[in-house]
Amino acid sequence: MLKIHHLGHSQSERIVWLCEELGVPYELVHYTRDPVTMLSPPELKALHPLGAAPLIEEDGMLLAESAAIVEYILARYGHGRLQHAPDHADFAAYLYWFHFANGNLQPVMGRSMMIGRCALAADHPVQTAVQGRLDKVLALIEARLGQNDYLAGSDFTAADIMSVFSLTTMRLFQPLDLAPYPHILAYLQRIGSRPGYQRAMSKGDPDLKPMLT
To answer: For the whole model, what pTM was predicted?
Structure first.
């Protein structure tokens, strides 16, 4: 059986959620962040040199990186679900938004968090540049969701599973007011109504109320 090493309040919620959506059986091993450093505990560091989650184990194989894990699970257990085939009209959009999550959205959220901790003046060039990039990224998502119910088009896909963490749980670490983005907020309500998402969050992060507003 697939074993998911899940760090609470982290990107590894993606993997629990994907398995719930696909109905893939799994064993969940839960880890808690250090209360002072907010980093992974030693038990995770013993499994992987980077000490990060998610990690999955299956038949003696250990795999890290959430995007790689999502692709692995889709390839082995998806049977075409939650992804678009090359002949689908939205195939290119699916690829773009799947990789946009870790290529743009999550990095800019991380930079904003780090720069915010430096307490720079609002008009400092670095602060201005980082905020400007974040604004552009969020505006792009807002525009996309104003045209489509989901990032890859009319259908819910793994591109959404990859992206939602940054718009929700990441805000525990980097507060973000989404009030200027009504289409993103409506999208998060659609996500929050999904039974698979509800099950995943209740199993993986039972102490956390999903940040859907």
So the answer is: 0.94
